């Protein structure tokens, strides 16, 4: 179903709004000028305010933390990110805005004795004087001087940190530029001093807690080290050397080293003896290294060489039996025997040396096994000793750390060198340019705002006046329709003869939309569809049939709905004064087009069909283009008619009906296509469309007619005669 809410009949008249604004412009200009003058006067009565700014930077304290280990170069570095992050900087910002810091600065600079911070001492400027005269200034009752000074102090103090930085800006505003700079600097210096005092107090607290801890830990260390010494002496686990190695372990190491050397000596001796015996068995004793190194054997070899040379020389002149030759052979054999004896003695010596080395190795190995057994037996004692030593070493390390920390903290406290996170990087200086009030910019701003606000008020009043005018027009239309609908027009004395109708049949279902062939059946369906609705049912009928057939069907259906108790109105929706208007014989009388343009009233255009209670509005005598039809006016007319009639039937040819349907955006309850056998298949192009528009929530119907005679047929003539009589009446 169509939306029952009334369409807005208001149309913004830009020319009327411009005229209204033009008439009000002189007053707006005077008001704007007055506002500007008043603003300038008020600003001139105010004392100028000056702002000064000090800057602080949040830096790393390094190892100044009294809880950190002074012997560890990396101690405290892990806390730097948490002490330098955004949240830490914001903490400093809020600390600078604390009440305790503000009260300390107020007391130090005696700000509560100045009028600017104590209203009870008198006005600050001319505006304050005027405000006091009218009862809007001065100190508030029930508030102390300290609280009022704090309130005024915080209203002039601004502390913030710029984005992406660790800098904190401290701004203070005052009527005295020197005081503004002094307060900003005092806030920065006082806060830094409080941080230093807090660090000293923190260090003192740590020192007081460290002293008894160091004393108790010293006793524990002495006791632990005594236990270690006693247990070492008892268990025989004495130590020596720079590494303090236990004696049994040190002895084990020494014997192991000695065994290694003995094994190497034995192996070398056995290798030499074996090699000598092999060379001796091969009758090459001269190749034995020890033989080559022996001076006795070398002398014997030299003697053999001498005897062999002499024997060879004399053998050339003497016979073997010669006594000299025999003596030389005897000497040569004696030397060779001596050489063999010496080599044998030397090889035997090598064997003895290898045997002795093996015996020494065996003895050392026995000693090593004995020491191993001794070390193994002392394993449990060593474990216990290590535990005692570890406990004593831990206590000793903790004592040394606390002592170093205690001494470092005492040195910092005694020297007065306390690293502070907040460092002043720029002191505030008195400003010569006031930040408030800026008379000219503020005056111009107030004037522009006043002009814009006044213009908006004038435009709003103009729009409201136009809306009231539209509401009055709509009320007037409703009153006119009510009067016309309630009137009982006099019936005509003679009714026109009945016109031939299309062959009535019961409504049948078609492939596209329900189809009717009887006006009575169509009327019954329309009345049934309306039900008990509070507003009228609005139906549009687009006809593809000839005017006579259309007029006959519409008349009979309207009469049937009237007889069923529904107050019915027919509207000829032709804008050009042609078509159905000719068949109704009302085209030259004022009608629908004049009503839309506002040239006539409802009482001028609403008529009654002869012999029935059906009302009709003709198409009108003025040709009007569908493009110039005011949609809001047409909606307002139809909405007003909904309140007076039960059934409103807008009848037009297909083209005119399409224009009306498009103008009011399909705000109908039922849409009907009247066609005949020739146009039956072109009435609805597809399911859910009407005259080329896709529709929803609108009931689509079709009325089928038989092809009748042309426009000059008998039925049309008889109907024209009846309508002519109605127009005369």
What would the keywords be for this entry?
729 residues, disordered C terminus, cell membrane, transmembrane helix, membrane, alpha/beta, eight-stranded mixed β-sheet, four-stranded antiparallel β-sheet
Write structural notes for this entry.
By secondary structure, this protein is of the alpha/beta class. It is about 60% helix and about 10% strand. It contains 21 helices and 16 strands. It has helices at about 15-45, 80-85, 85-95, 100-110, 125-135, 145-155, 175-235, 245-280, 290-295, 295-315, 325-375, 380-415, 440-485, 520-530, 545-565, 580-585, 590-595, 600-605, 630-645, 655-665, 715-729; strands at about 50-60, 155-160, 165-175, 240, 245, 420-425, 515, 535-545, 570, 605-610, 615, 645-655, 670-675, 690, 695, 700-705. It has an 8-stranded mixed sheet with strand order 7-16-13-8-12-9-11-10, sandwiched between helices. Strand 14 and strand 15 (about 695) form a beta hairpin. The radius of gyration is 65 Å and the shape is elongated. Its main location: membrane. Keywords: Cell membrane, Membrane, Transmembrane, Transmembrane helix. Pfam families: Wzz. It is found in: Cell membrane.
Please render the helix and strand layout as text:
Blueprint: H1 14-44, E1 50-58, H2 80-84, H3 86-96, H4 99-109, H5 126-133, H6 145-156, E2 157-160, E3 167-174, H7 177-235, E4 239-240, E5 245-246, H8 247-281, H9 289-293, H10 295-314, H11 323-377, H12 379-415, E6 422-426, H13 439-486, E7 515-516, H14 519-530, E8 537-543, H15 547-563, E9 568-572, H16 580-584, H17 592-597, H18 602-605, E10 606-608, E11 615-617, H19 631-644, E12 647-653, H20 654-663, E13 670-676, E14 689-690, E15 693-694, E16 699-705, H21 714-728
